[in-house]
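Protein: GED domain-containing protein
Species: Dovyalis caffra
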Amino acid sequence: MMEDPSSKAEITRVLKVLEVLKQASHELQTHPSLDSAESNSPAVKALLELETESDTILSKDPHLSTLSQHLATLKSLVATLEQSCGHGLRSFLTRRVSTQAISRVAGSIEMEIQAWIDRESIESLMKGLKEPSQTEEDELVSLLSQFEERVSQGFNRELQDLVLKSKIFCLLEKIVCDPSCSKKVREQCAFVVSALIKFNKDVFVGQVLMGRLIHGLVSMASWKSIKVLCLLIKSIKSPLVDEIESNGEIPKIISFLDYKDLHFRVVAMDCILEIGYFGRKEAIEAMLKEGLIKKLVELQRLERGDLINMGMLDHERENGEGEKRLLESHPFAGCVARFAVQLEVGEGLRQRERRAFKQEILKRVREVCASDAEAATIIAEVLWGSSP
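Structure follows.
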């Protein structure tokens, strides 16, 4: 940590220098040739220039002491390489070994730089999360976005240790569940949680299932929060759907289909389809109990009316690409059959439960349709769309 951690200007200055060095180190590893390891190459030149300035830039932070050592080693290796300028076998082998050693040291330099950046970014983010009302909204959202991007780069044990030690997950969950916080910040916190699940599902899934995050996402009632819920369902699968059902959140999710905002309804439909795919018997029963089929029939009726008026229905279904375009422009077309297919091919139900729910869907379609013709059309779609 810096001697004066409150000095943003000093941290920013060091960060800019280290970002340049990180790029130079990466290039040196990516292209480990004799020419790229010469002292006049851009990558090595940038690294050696910092080594000469290490007293003023690196000595202030004990976390960067190892980086100073690596830079000193690099300088020594480059000097050895330049001294072995002969054409004999021994000189060639010395240069080859030195080049490989330089590449390894460059890798260590990059790791040390990234570790420093991770520590500083998490520390800054933690300060913002602990006192969100004292932090500019855009600044906190930016910090969250940067952290999400870093986590999305893939698993890193050192980064995971920092995340666990900081207990940042608890703060993210707290903000997601706090209606007094900015909605923009809450949504971005939710996306960070989703990124952490992808980062290491084994470590963070338990915290999702045991906490109040699911309720926070549903109660936020925005298309972004429900999109995150969809992502979590895809990652955690049936156990998360079990929690959604046991927490009594399904009625609220079904009610989102009544919202005026089209994009929100589309995301809610995606969430319902994911629940249908991974949900066990209790979850599917809860959805049907909330009148899901009636809502889907009504949505499909509106879509079908628009498509018929536009003369698009048969034309758009001539091939797979047409079907894709149809769903993009009319997301509720055939939604009853799509839901039935999710149950049929999904992971949550036993075979006899699939058959029973299919019959239940057909029964409810007959009950809620406005005419025999409408019922016949939707029933045909369900029977045609589901596998035998």
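Remarks: The CA atoms of residues 45 and 124 lie 31 Å apart.
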